[in-house]
């Protein structure tokens, strides 16, 4: 898609796209004195330390137009007109048998699950603000009172808006979870038993409240510990673009993965990825796209790459789970990739052994075939970055941080 035809406003400081330099009669960067010999990217780093008047004095640099473009590029051209071949299926209902036999490996949207939840009836930005305005919630790397975050959400103009993503929301809002206990929400029954539930309070982080303005979201990632997930939209709507993982399928366009898949590199913002790679992605085999609207639930299969962006200010609840159909993938991940396992409390030094022991107690013999197929335990490896920088012992990185594709990982909250 050619971003030149998109209705982006004129930059207030007359900063223009870098491509204009090839046809311009004059490059005013020559008037920047000592800065004229520096690359634009280095100048941008220096500009971060200056105040507004000082910035104006330094003149204009072309590379500043890219963030401006990303802030203002409209989402509709990228999220509308989804090709039929790419459309995520929409289902009114699904049984657990149908899920296990036909749908565990496919994204889909359930259209009628959320509307019976009490939180769907009761929650809005206004009601949450009234009830929990002074309560601290995690917004990526910061803890803010909800009233502070909502003020930010309503007035920000950031290229990548901060995303409220809180794992302790049930405790903070004092809601109960589960249909059988009269809870305010519950997991859709079609997903069946969640095998991580046998770990009780020792299970890894599994549920989050998500609140964010239009344009907020997460760049491409796969969910932690080879889990599947569901994401229920309480208010607003979200655009999803997804790709399967297999030996024959490369990562999504614009996403680069280390050999052991522990390190992922992609454009820093969603808008930057849309501008540079969306057109190619939409024509890549395996691409699935859809809009999950208010009152709907989207299923993310184990191992699928996904990017999500809010089309409107949104409130959602998401939960990771281990269905029977992907039990082998999770066991294999815990066993063979201990350096990438995340979300467990730090005192749990061997999540694999804990899970195997609890599974044998709760479901004797269920894992026997899986363990036979997986064979002997492999020696865990450090991530390359940790080897180079930290030199930490293998036991210290069992609980390596998982990043949902926004901000910086944080030891205390991001799973």
Care to describe what's here?
This protein is of the alpha+beta class and 415 residues long. The chain contains 14 helices and 15 strands. A 7-stranded mixed sheet has the order 1-2-13-8-15-6-5, with no helix packed on it. A 4-stranded antiparallel sheet has the order 7-14-9-12, covered by helices on one side. A two-stranded antiparallel ribbon has the order 3-4. A hairpin with a 6-residue loop joins strand 10 (256-257) and strand 11. It is globular, with a radius of gyration of 23 Å.
Q: Key terms for this structure?
A:
415 residues, alpha+beta, seven-stranded mixed β-sheet, 14 helices, 27% helix, globular
Distance between the termini: 35 Å
Mean pLDDT: 85
Number of helices: 14
Query: Which regions contain 5 or more consecutive residues with pLDDT less than 50?
Result: 382-401, 407-415
**Sheet having the most strands:** 7 strands, mixed
Number of strands: 15
Draw up the topology in text.
Layout: H1 40-47, H2 52-58, H3 65-72, H4 76-79, E1 90-91, H5 96-103, E2 108-110, H6 118-122, H7 125-132, E3 136-139, E4 142-145, H8 146-155, E5 164-166, H9 169-173, E6 207-212, E7 217-221, E8 228-235, E9 237-243, E10 256-257, E11 264-265, H10 270-282, E12 288-293, E13 297-300, E14 305-310, E15 314-321, H11 327-336, H12 351-362, H13 368-374, H14 384-389
Parallel strand pairs: 1-2
Antiparallel strand pairs: 2-13, 3-4, 5-6, 6-15, 7-14, 8-13, 8-15, 9-12, 9-14, 10-11
Helix pairs in contact: 3-10
């Amino acid at each position: 898609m050619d971003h030149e035809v998109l209705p982006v406003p004129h930059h207030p400081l007359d900063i223009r796209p870098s491509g204009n330099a090839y046809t311009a009669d004059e490059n005013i960067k020559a008037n920047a004195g000592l800065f004229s010999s520096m690359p634009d990217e280095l100048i941008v780093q220096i500009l971060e330390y200056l105040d507004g008047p000082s910035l104006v004095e330094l003149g204009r640099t072309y590379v500043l137009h890219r963030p401006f473009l990303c802030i203002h590029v409209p989402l509709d051209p990228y999220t509308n007109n989804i090709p039929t071949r790419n459309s995520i299926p929409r289902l009114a209902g699904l049984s657990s048998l149908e899920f296990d036999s036909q749908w565990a490996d496919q994204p889909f949207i359930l259209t009628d699950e959320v509307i019976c939840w009490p939180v769907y009836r009761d929650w809005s930005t206004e009601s949450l603000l009234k009830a929990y305005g002074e309560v601290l919630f995690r917004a990526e790397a910061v803890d803010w009172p909800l009233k502070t975050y909502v003020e930010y959400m309503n007035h920000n103009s950031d290229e990548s808006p901060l995303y409220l993503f809180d794992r302790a929301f049930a405790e903070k809002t004092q809601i109960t979870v589960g249909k059988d206990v009269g809870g305010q929400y519950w997991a859709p029954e079609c997903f069946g038993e969640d095998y991580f539930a046998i770990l009780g309070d020792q299970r890894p982080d599994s549920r989050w409240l998500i609140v964010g303005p239009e344009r907020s979201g997460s760049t491409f990632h796969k969910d932690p510990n080879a889990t599947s997930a569901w994401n229920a939209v309480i208010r607003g709507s979200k655009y999803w673009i997804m790709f399967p993982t297999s030996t024959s399928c490369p990562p999504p366009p614009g996403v680069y993965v280390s050999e052991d898949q522990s390190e992922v590199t992609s454009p820093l913002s969603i808008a930057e990825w849309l501008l540079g790679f969306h057109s190619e992605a939409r024509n890549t085999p395996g691409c699935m796209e859809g809009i999950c609207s208010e009152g709907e639930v989207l299923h993310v299969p184990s191992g699928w790459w996904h990017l999500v962006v809010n089309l409107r200010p949104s409130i959602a609840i998401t939960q990771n789970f281990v269905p029977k159909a992907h039990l082998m993938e999770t066991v294999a991940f815990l066993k063979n990739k201990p350096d990438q396992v995340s979300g467990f409390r730090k005192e749990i030094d061997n999540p694999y052994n804990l899970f195997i022991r609890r599974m044998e107690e709760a479901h004797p013999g269920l894992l026997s075939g899986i363990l036979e197929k997986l064979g002997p335990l492999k020696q865990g490896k450090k991530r390359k970055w940790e080897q180079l920088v930290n030199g930490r012992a293998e036991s210290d990185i069992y609980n390596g941080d998982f990043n949902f594709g926004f901000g910086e990982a944080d030891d205390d909250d991001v799973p």
